[in-house]
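Milestone M4 deliverable, item 7.
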Amino acid sequence: MSDDLSPAHDVLPFGRAPRPDSGPALADRLREVMTRNLGPHASGLDRVRIDAATVPGSPDVQSLDVDVTGLVVRAMGAADAPDPAENVEHVVGREQAVARTIRAQGHPVTIAGVAVDLDAEIRDLRFTWVEGADGSLAIEESGQSTEHPVSGHLRAAASRDALVTTVRDLATKALADQGFTLTALDVDLTSRGPRAASIVASAKIRKGFLSASAQITATAEIDQAMVLTLSNIGATSRNPVVAALLLAVRGKLEQVDGKRIDLASSLPPGVTLSDVRLDVGEQLVLSVRVG
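Output delivered:
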């Protein structure tokens, strides 16, 4: 047990103390947490398979395998998205722990109408069990370090057509809330290499008897040093009224055009981004490796 009894902020509630000390108990507790947070927004939670193993006499988790195949999570707005984080102001105990191996898969898991083929694994993830004076149990991020790095990988694949359909549905709803009708949306996503892609989105909108079209372009590229560069960003329209309205938007886009983001340095200590790939074809496949 740690002597640190300071308040714990932005922790994940994990039921009641004491912590689960067996694999089946940990799996049951995680299922309860998933149901509490995703229940109103998902179906197929009964299909989720969770297998866990703990380390006897230790707060560590030996392994955690979560198979979300068949789970369907509906699209959510910012107001609907679950925010499970809570604060524990009166802490009576802390135990530092390591999750030695966490695996997640979904073949597929459906998110906002898009079927995603998912495989992920993370190793040596450090966290802290936190007990509150009210008998609550929570999980607190411990933070990695260069002495205790985390490693793992992620692969997520989805149909390009399904992604475009979802974007169209979300854009239709967003414009309808503003009194506009989206009559057409074409999205052309092109691979420019294993770490680069460009997008051209052409939209037609209508309000009353007035209609107009607009086009947005952008290119993103990640180099060997894991630096993301955004370029060729623009917004145009042949309609003079819409073009005038886009002036303000173009000003903001010009501020982003050419911007470089060092993905590696933006990560916390102990988390090293070693590779990122985006393969564009009939499917969009994102691959990420850390460590």
